[in-house]
Amino acid sequence: MMTKIVISCGDPAGVGLEVTLKALCLRQFSRFDRFLLYVAPSHWRSALSAHWASSLGVPAVDIHTPGEPLPDVPGLSIAMLSGPHEAPLPGVWVDEWGHVALMSLEAAIADVLSGVADAIVTAPINKRVLSLGPDGFPGQTEMLACRAGDVPVAMMLAGPRLRVVPVTTHIALGAVPARVTTDGIVQTTTVVWTALRHRFGIQRPKLMMCGLNPHAGEGGRFGDEEQRIIIPAIRHLQEQGMDVVGPFAADSLFHFAVDGGADAVICMYHDQGLIPLKLLHFHEGVNITLGLPFIRTSPDHGSAYDIADKGIARPESMIAAMDVACDLVRKTRYQSS
User: How far is the C-alpha of 99 from the C-alpha of 38, rounded, in Å?
Assistant: First the structure.
């Protein structure tokens, strides 16, 4: 059965289209994959004429009408968005091109909600893109959750040996202790547990949980959040039948996690999980939004204005994002069959 993936173009001033084209060409199309890319005409033309694209062998594309079914054959379709006549300037923010990135994301969401596509792969954006819309979302994850009906979601960063999920995401470090709550830990962990079972096909997920403080609080000596907040959350989760253990000191937990001790690690804040993840999987890490009624992945890097259009952006993370999206679609179908 054909797997249909819609790709948003990302920030046109960044490396999104470069890594997308490189990934599509280097990854090659399996006989079961159909991709749909939303992009503005001048952006597409400028990418095809770029020096880095000349040796890629970009495949022939079909022009797609938004909202129409995709063909049941492998390959690439392009849906053209309205945008400026002049090509985007590499590394230079322009509001008009930010609106194109936002339109691309909205169109991709509409396709996956309507069933035109099975999953979304989002190319990286500048966060300013989301401020152009009426809702002012802090990130693509929050926008996707809202469009899906304000469902609870979790942000997983994954590589071949490690998966991490932070309970708090893009907030100041000083604000973290007040935002780590028993209810928040329970909600995030439940989303992760459910996704590992129904999306990843892991029937009995094993989860390890980090403490918040050094040495996981050292019995209250370095902070009492473990006793007050984290341990009650773990007990509640265990009572619900989930295999969750902790809290462990973050300085040693990851050694055991990557050695097969956990299917995912629940972290209390952003850098607690992303530092070890990127140390291991800097070029092939994937951002996966869990909890949505559809599959969404993204490369685990930003729009990289500093290297835009230089031809040196590495596509491994985008290739991994495409591979994971296709794999999760197939596993989800198998779980529901």
Answer: 13
Torsion angles phi and psi, residue 10, rounded to 5: 75, -170
Determine contact, residues 27/287, Cβ cutoff 8 Å: no
Q: Which residues contact 178 (CB under 8 A, 6 or more apart)?
A: none
List where CATH 3.40.718.10 sits in the chain.
1-151+292-337, 152-291
- Which architecture does CATH list for 1-151+292-337? 3-Layer(aba) Sandwich (3.40)
Residue position matching structure tokens 């802090």: 138
Class of domain 152-291: alpha beta
- Cβ neighbours, 10 Å, residue 221: 10
Residue 326, token pair as written in the block: 């296709």
State mean pLDDT over 60-68.
Answer: 85
Q: What is the pLDDT of residue 29?
A: 63
Q: How far apart are CA 21 and CA 53, in angstroms?
A: 8
pLDDT given at position 268: 97
Q: Does the model's pTM come out above 0.85?
A: yes
Task: Please tell me the distance from the alpha carbon of residue 206 to that of residue 204, in angstroms, as a whole number.
Answer: 7
How far lies 307's CA from each of 26, 313, 314, in Å? Answer: 20, 7, 10
Alpha carbon 261 to its chain's center: 24
